Amino acid sequence: MAKTVVLRKKKRTFKSWLNEESTAGYIFSLPFIIGFLMFMVVPMGLSLYYSFCKYDIQNAPTWVGLDNYIKIFTNDKTFSKALGVTCYFALVGTPLKVIFALIVALILNHESRAVGFYRAVYYLPSIIGGSVAVAILWRRLFESNGTLNAILSKVFPGMAGFNWFGEGPAIWVLIILTVWQFGSSMLIFLSALKQIPRELYEAADVDGAVPFQQFWKVTLPLLTPTIFFNLVQQTINSFLAFTQSKLITNGAPRNSTLFYTVYQYNKAFPNQGKSQMGYASALAWIMLVIVTVVTALLFKSRSKWVYDG
Amino acid sequence: MAGRKPWKEVVYHVLVTLGGFIMVYPLLWMVLSSFKPTDMVLPTSSQLIPTQWTVANYVQGWKGFMGYTFATFFLNSFFISLVATFGTLISSSLVAYALQRLEFKLKGLLFVLVLSTMMLPAQILMIPQFMWYRHLNWVGTYYPMILPYFFAIQGFFVYLIMNFIGGIPKDLDEAAKIDGCSYYGIFARVILPLIVPAMVTSAIFSFIWRWDDYLSALLYVNKASMRPISLALQLFNDPSSGSDIGSILAMSTLSIVPATVIFLIFQKSLVEGIASTGIKG
């Protein structure tokens, strides 16, 4: 008799423990806690260790201290080239993309039944833009005997046979590809535009503000938080572009489109020669620091120009 | 807008349609060119509509290469994308519920970590994860492309679902609690049925991203029979595979059909999903 009472009591305590809010909180969060440790912390920790090693995958890693880092910063011209290309791509491509998204969103912020259809059409390239199919297509479009030249040469005969994949324009082939995918930023702008209270425009109307003034004094300040969000998101994305640059140009010609991520991949999985996993790990860590610093700088600039009314 | 002059409306629609046409022109070109005879694709590349229609490219392309037809590659992609998406939905909704509704000590920290995963995308993790999966003997299997997604590693989805749960009145939770519902019961009976729209949005994004994932396939798939469509298409496009431009365009077109169809069907919930993560961000 006494025994069953104890048992029942024990059972109840476990059950009530299970039903405490904080226990439930941890149990529900468990997938993320495990996942974060298993698929983020452990790999990053492991690669931090390897970044201080010489490691070719075949043979056991040997500790070399800071050698990889020293070599990267003092004796690796391809590293600085790749970093330069990536920064150029991010600094030119991202603002262009965000500006484009904003302009199209302003145009589509219009009362008409057709707008839903337009929105879908302008967004479609973004939804499939990351696919291998689009990479293949892009290569074909910009080929010297490709579609773009065929069309352009009808208006500008000089463009026939223009080499888009030459050292100057090649990076622009990739920039145009990323700008073409302004869709998700555009959607975010559109919904932000819908949130701006109508009364503000009515008040501006009463004060005699012309549409251009309304845009500068009402719309733009109220959109700054959204512009900020899009800038941060797209900057990070462009620092990390991989598939399209790997497939469309693979760094050619003469590394003028060599993205940092592609360089890192090529060090770890070279077409010929030995894999340099330790070196690639160091590159990954440097990239992580760069992305963190850039994001921090963007957040620091926030108070200077973002309007939080 | 009411009171706008009709001719202004017409100009507006003409210009916006023209812009839209330029936007989708590359895609139209790919789709329509895939129906041209393969030796006509390049000579008529500035012409959009085929003079002579044919499905020969599809018949030829579907045969695939190295003994595998595109049926294999499509099935592989469907399998990986569906299972990974299933894992993403389950795990992300559990975590989102905890972070949005429950109070516990490490909640704040966990939320920051969830957000930080959005800044730690696959490209930074590719080398570290590759080495770790190699230790686990996962290279050459589908595990790296499926298992991690059962652990809510994509902060985007947790955040998206969190925002959605935030919009559900807390009174519903309280009422269920008074009726004797546990937190697990509240999640299963109250929250889960109400977050279906957020789950649909997440499912679409997750499916399309998994479908397009080329990097993981490149790193982890080494058997021809296990290739998903992304990797297969890239190899098919390689000059060494001996395929012609017609079949390449035909298979490229087929590869974007699932994403395009899903997009067209669920356009509205996709748009709302993006908007809702954006506003609060």
Protein topology:
The complex is a heterodimer of chains A (309) and B (281).
Chain A: H1 2-18, H2 21-50, E1 53-54, E2 62-63, H3 67-74, H4 77-108, H5 115-128, H6 132-142, H7 147-155, H8 170-180, H9 183-195, H10 198-206, H11 211-239, H12 243-248, H13 260-268, H14 277-305
Antiparallel strand pairs in A: 1-2
Helix pairs in contact in A: 2-14, 4-8, 4-9, 4-11, 5-9, 9-11, 11-14, 13-14
Chain B: H1 6-33, H2 56-62, H3 70-101, H4 107-116, H5 122-135, H6 143-146, H7 155-166, H8 170-178, H9 183-194, H10 196-212, H11 215-220, H12 229-237, H13 245-280
Helix pairs in contact in B: 2-13, 3-7, 3-10, 4-7, 7-10, 7-13, 8-9, 10-13, 12-13
Descriptors for this entry?
heterodimer; A: 309 residues; mainly alpha; MetI-like fold; two-stranded antiparallel ribbon; 14 helices; 2 strands; 73% helix; 1% strand; globular; B: 281 residues; 2 domains
Q: Mind explaining what this structure looks like?
A:
The complex is a heterodimer of chains A (309) and B (281). Chain A has helices at residues 2-18, 21-50, 67-74, 77-108, 115-128, 132-142, 147-155, 170-180, 183-195, 198-206, 211-239, 243-248, 260-268, 277-305, and strands at residues 53-54, 62-63. Chain A is mainly alpha-helical. Chain A has a domain at 67-129 and 182-305: MetI-like fold (Orthogonal Bundle), CATH 1.10.3720.10. Chain A starts with a helix and ends with a helix. Helix content of chain B is 70%, strand content 0%. Chain B has helices spanning 6-33, 56-62, 70-101, 107-116, 122-135, 143-146, 155-166, 170-178, 183-194, 196-212, 215-220, 229-237, 245-280. The longest helix of chain B has 36 residues, at 245-280. At the A-B interface, helix 2, helix 4, helix 5, helix 6 and helix 7 of A face helix 1, helix 3, helix 4, helix 5 and helix 9 of B.
